[in-house]
Design goal:
alpha/beta; 9-stranded mixed sheet; 6-stranded parallel sheet; 10 helices; 17 strands
Amino acid sequence: MRQIGVGVIALGWMGRLHSRGFAQVAERYPELGLGARLVAAADPVPANQQAALALGFERAVADYRDVLADPEVDAVSICAPNFLHHEIAMAAIAAGKHFWIEKPMGTSAAQSREIAEAAAAAGLATAAGFNYRHQPAVEHARDLVRTGRLGRITNARVWLIADYASSPDGAFTWRYTRAQAGAGVVGDLLSHGIDLAQYVLGSRITEVTAMTDTFITTRPIPLGVGVGHSAVAVSDERREVENEDYVAALARTAGGALVTLESSRVAVGPRAEYVVEVYGTEGSVRWSFEHPEHLQVLIAGDGSHRGYTSVMSEAGYGDYGRFQPGPGMHLSFDDSKVIEARQFLETIATGRQLAPSAGDAWAAAEADEAVVASAADRTWHAVPEVSGTTYAF
């Protein structure tokens, strides 16, 4: 078995998901003869360094540069906060390390472009964290579009509505600053929606018009270190939120489909309501992350009943058979990261881009930036075409 030496940079929630994903590849995909050797993890927090050893890493360090300098590390996962992505990715490229990076890849489209182009010029394998692509029902929806079962695609709706920031007393963290997060919910959630639309439809978004708003305009300053979505004690002093809580956008694709996109981080009610709907001249599909193994399908020629049929995922739908023996059981968010880890390692081993690429993250960043610009001037904005994407059929 070929063992690819991996390092993980930042070992919070996402870094631990990457680590567990790497560890499961050899078990889930034995025929590949491919596995991950957990060489080193970097995190300045001592508790996370202890977690690294418990996860099976051979060593844990505080400085990510030590991981990049390690000759036994072939590839790294970059799971640090957004504002560190560009610095770490460019350092990984300089060190000749393949990398799997969480989105958004930088705090701007310019940063994402620099990363994607530098990685391509260096001949490095990349992966980006668009894990909702890998849900088996989403893969089946894409197959129905690709094979023409839905006819000509006319329009699609994609929304990602969450409540993680719905409390006005939630601590102010880096996520609410322009300098450290860039956009707010646009980069955090809508980027997933943009990637899902482009991936399922197999066509890039060419132009957008949008509106955004910030509904919770100030947040209390934390007494400790505020990280990501974590709950911490807060002071009575509040700070102005610098980026958006909500976005709604209209888009057109190169294939002629119209798309509506919506995201919120402050919704009261939905916890993680992530939905994709695709409509064609011969049928339509609907998928919800709240019921991930069910794909609602209607194909007009299949019979006289006009209501949706709930089709359950099974072997043959994406990688479902790698995790469950038959229909009726779910794949988790964590399982989708195992699929992502497999695609990344296989991309390294074969030289074929199987994982969502740095180009895909750059494409989402360009669309994100066009959305933010449109919301500011209330006009349509063209989305630049980028290289190195994987969503086209």
